Amino acid sequence: MEKARRTSSPSWTAAVALVSLFAVAGVAAAGAPPPRRILVDTDMDTDDLFALLYILKQDRSQFDVKAITISANAWIDAGHGVDQLYDILYMMGRDDIAVGVGGDGGISEAGEIHPDVGGYLPLIDQGMSTVGGCRYRQAVPPGRRGGRLDTDTNGGLRRGFLPQGHRGYAPLRQPTAQQVMVDTVSAGPTTLLLFGTHTNAALLLMAHPHLRRNVERVYVLGGGVRVAGNLFTAYGANPFAEFNVFGDPFAAYQVLHSGVPVTLVPLDATNTIPVTEEYFAEFGRRWQTTPEARYCFQSLDLVLRRHRRPAPGLHGSTGYYMWDSFAAGVAFSSMRNGDANGANDFAELEYMNITVITSNKPYGVRDGSNPFFDGRATPKFGLKVGGVHSGHVQTGIGDSFCLVPGSNAGRCQDGYTKEVTGSEGVRVRVATSAKPNPVYNSAFDREFSKNFLEVLNLAKQAGRFNISTQFPYYREVLYKPDFINVSRGKPVIFDMDMSPGDFVSLIYLLKAPREVIDLKGVLVNGNGWANIASIDIIYDILHMMGRDDIPVGLGNTTAMGNPTLGCNNVYAIPLGSGGFIDSDTLYGLARLLPRSPRR
């Protein structure tokens, strides 16, 4: 018996040691902080895609992306943006992340914010529907060369690269932006990353002030404090503003003045981290080992082609900057090292007193430009008569109030993130510059530049596949009928604005006997019931019907006699349900069509 006890003693010792090890591990696990809950609000522009993929590659034991909402009143059209986001999340194996877009709620004349306001319009123009003008959005070109046509389609790359996810926009079932935001922030402390206009975040904080305590910090990509703005289409009216803040200045003001801690990554910092020719060449040579890295490189290549970059090999900036991706890097480094005062691996930061200009002096003058005050005995939202919101509000990029005769720089300051003294300012932590790479003569002249590529190329949490690896037998083949010795009917050209009824008519024409109707071409009217990126639906229908021989022509994005930048006439079409979001997705059915090689 004694011998047996002695024989079992080593096993007993090992068992005790193992139990002790588990106990220590349990204590360590219990002491480890839970991952930071993250909510991203994005306008899905190309630089936002870079930021999203960088974010999705972060260590999930430290950062847990709970939700992504789409800012739908600037660089992306909601229907195209949400389906691209679903496919990106599918590629990255993150169908668990909630996605919110749009909504048909409104704001009453008395200033009551109803549930599910879609964020399609800036707060100053938001009524009880999704119909409205484009006071600020007209600064964003609607067509080619870096406009919404390119962002909606990612230059045509989106449908040629991304896999087809199981989720997609579906009318009446798609969660709204506000629904997703409220649910996410209500569930626990959450950090917000804002990469577009601030409309969605402002609606959340204004309609649900009790949830402010659950917002740990807001990281913002936007504004320009000590540098000029970047409104390249509207500099002659407003040389101070940056696009993200200009898209809804009053919303940005509300976020900044909400009492929630804010870290701002403005043009001051992003201007110091350009994409250089050397960086682009290095990206192409060595840093494309994952699907997400390849998608970023190919997207960047398309962007730089549009920017008319110089011939490869030349030194200097391409004219493109690491806007949103750099802001994401600054945010995650701050969260690791201390949001309020910790060091940052990628940026120099300092505290400044700033505010957002929402109207122009003199204050209190009612000139028909400011719906918060004009024609009202009581200002909307209880705003102060004669206060900072009561001046002239820029009505568009050609606002005569903003233009200065004989000068190419205007005087309006709407959307200017201005450094001020006194009580009007808010103490904000601001990134002022990107930290240089200490390695001399490197292709990566900034510390974040290399980190971005390293993270994208990590094998951990890499994307699973693209469209060609998801469907190994997928081939881009054009199908053209053989009409030799076939009698042809009356030649027809179909001019359509891509409303759902137009697509029904197109299919009818394609089914008609060729001896009766010979469809020769399709013309796309770009100022009707769908945004022009929906031309891809036409290509897909023609491909499905075996008629890749039919040419498709893209028309103007505005009505005849109207400027290219604007929304005259089109403003009468709803942006939400029954309008653009449904037409752009063909009520969710467009994803069921085969993908045409033409796009």
Task: Summarize it.
With 599 residues, the chain is an alpha/beta fold. Helices cover 31% and strands 14% of the residues. The N and C termini lie far apart (83 Å).
How are the SSEs ordered, and which strands pair?
Blueprint: H1 2-31, E1 36-42, H2 46-56, E2 63-70, H3 78-91, E3 98-100, H4 148-153, H5 157-161, H6 177-186, E4 190-195, H7 199-207, E5 215-221, H8 243-246, H9 249-256, E6 262-265, H10 267-270, E7 274-276, H11 277-286, H12 291-306, E8 317-321, H13 323-337, E9 347-356, E10 417-419, E11 426-434, H14 447-456, H15 467-470, E12 490-496, H16 500-511, E13 517-524, H17 535-544, E14 552-554, H18 580-585
Parallel strand pairs: 1-2, 1-4, 2-3, 4-5, 5-6, 6-11, 12-13, 13-14
Antiparallel strand pairs: 7-8, 9-10, 9-11
Explain what you see.
- By secondary structure, the protein is α/β, with parallel strands linked by helices.
- It is built from 18 helices and 14 strands.
- The chain has a 9-stranded mixed sheet, with helices on both faces. A 3-stranded parallel sheet has the order 12-13-14, with helices on one face. Strands 7-8 form a two-stranded antiparallel ribbon.
- Helix 3 links the parallel strand 2 (63-70) and strand 3 (98-100).
- Helix 2 (46-56) packs antiparallel against helix 12 (291-306).
- The longest helix has 30 residues, at 2-31.
- One of its GO terms (molecular function) is hydrolase activity, hydrolyzing N-glycosyl compounds.
- Keywords: Signal.
- This is Inosine/uridine-preferring nucleoside hydrolase domain-containing protein.
- Pfam families: IU_nuc_hydro.
